[in-house]
Amino acid sequence: MCPRHSNTSPDQLNTLAAEHCLTLANRADTARHSILRLFGSKAAALPGTLIGRVAHPDTRPRRQRAREWHYWWQAHLMDALVDTGFRQQAAGQGDEAQEALKQARALLRGIQVRNYGSYPNDFYDDMAWLTLACERLNRLALAVEGDGDSAAQDAGQRLYRELTSACTAEVGGGAFWSKDHDFKNTPATAPIALAFARAHRYKEAADLLNWLQAHLLDPESGLYLDGVKVTGSGEQAGISSVERGLYTYNQGPVLGAYLALLDAGATDRLVLDPVTHIAELVDSVDRTFGLDFEVSSTESLRLLRTQGGGDGGLFTGILVRYLADVALHSALPKATRATARGLVLATAEVLWDGRREFDPDLPMSEPGIDPNEIRGQAVALFSPHVERHISDLLKPGQPVDLSTQIQAWTIIEAAQRVFASD
User: What DSSP state is assigned to residue 235?
Assistant: First the structure.
């Protein structure tokens, strides 16, 4: 690796983007095709539904597969489908945008079926992510068809009631993580704040952000810590300990919520100035999660480290989604936007270079078959660790988590959106 101070120059990024101007959208389409081809299935085998298998190949015992389906991963899969729909709509590809909308709707039906006919579950952060995805699905329907999506609206209405119940006065505010009501944290409070801001519930959104600033903004790192354990209830509630983990995804929806309030002109209740705080938070993200990746002996790219597989496989993708919003926001300092832009584009570039492509329909039983041969449409698998090629981590045939692939797709879509606006 190169020294910490080595950063991606604007000329490097412009060269990268120019080289791949026409292929960024193709890369995003490859990621989408790959996920739907390898991970997509029907919920309970019902027509008109879509659900993402949590691994490929899925080698878990049948009982475990029935129990574990990762609700919140599915929410981010929906967000990625919506990303595709908006991109295609902006490019004048109306039929393709309609197909992405159809797939996102099928996924919402699949989530409802897989969740036993309803949308709520026991975890407020899960429900916050699905609420955000439903709100965007409704906007995509408006853009493509001129009318909102009734199923997304119904889901959102039900889920907003759940999110409201997560936010209580214990320990000064904030949102509980689960219905056990013993842990208030950033993973629930930040996306709920963003969901409230999108619903024009600005006071509640600002109150949640102020609580995060008071209780979980770490002065040393400048980043948001994970959460606080709560004992007791009502006026007797207190904080027994602080979970001090630093994770990429906790920073993302905080950025998104501050941006939403800034866009709405609803910043009067915020303790922190949003423009200043966003700039400081982006600098802290770069300082703590940034990675200098050596491209050659004389060149390096500044990108974001990823956080492995499992749930962590989505963390950096979530952050990049909101860094792209920072990069595109004209009210923010030029240096802040440039830092965000550089991290988004470089992370997407290195993830793409670290992929493995193969033909899933290749008849491997044929004598003398070359496993590297591509006869039909290739699929790609992306590395859970951005700085390492996937072939250095996982042999062909070893299970790959859905979360890591949604992350790569999300990051590539974000990079395309950033470049397309230049």
Answer: G
